[in-house]
């Protein structure tokens, strides 16, 4: 059984929108695009590289797919991620795209939850969900996320799309590994572990 791994950059207040640049995603008037690089460090890059080792595919929503497909095919070949990103299989969830041109890309058909269940049951390695906030919300609602790999950066934005938005399904998480980089970023890996427990002091 393949696992669905949500890999996401977050601010300290949980915002995942447009970490990579000012023009990445300005939806709803978001003005803080590009917040990640100033608070990034080499240890974060090493952790992310490790997240891709057991994976042989990505699962992307339309917006993230289009951002990646416009960048990686012509990215610097000296960047060790370039070959990796171009070579991995990409599964794309979209209600509006009719075709996908980036090499090794497949447009999923029909109900996304059913399509992902079929992917999980197929042969292969882990499947990383990168960015793709709306898709991640759908996967969480259907209990299809096997693991969260999060970098939580030392910056507060105050507005923007959040991975765990209002209405998220209450879920207990089991920590697999948690560390802090020299720049203050928390690198956390967590697995869903049933429903939260409640108690009082």
Tell me the layout of helices and strands.
Blueprint: E1 4-11, H1 42-52, E2 55-61, H2 62-71, H3 80-87, E3 89-93, E4 105-107, H4 112-121, E5 126-130, H5 133-141, E6 147-153, E7 173-180, E8 186-192
Parallel strand pairs: 1-5, 1-6, 2-3, 2-5, 3-4
Antiparallel strand pairs: 6-8, 7-8
Overview of the structural elements:
This protein is of the alpha/beta class. The chain is 24% helix and 25% strand. It contains five helices and eight strands. The protein has an eight-stranded mixed β-sheet. A hairpin with a 5-residue loop joins strand 7 and strand 8 (186-192). The longest helix has 11 residues, at 42-52. It starts with a strand and ends in a 9-residue tail after the last strand.
Concise overview:
This protein has 201 residues and is of the alpha/beta class.
Residues in β-strands, percent? 15-25%
Average pLDDT, rounded to a whole number, is: 94
Radius of gyration: 17 Å
Structural class estimated from helices and strands: alpha/beta
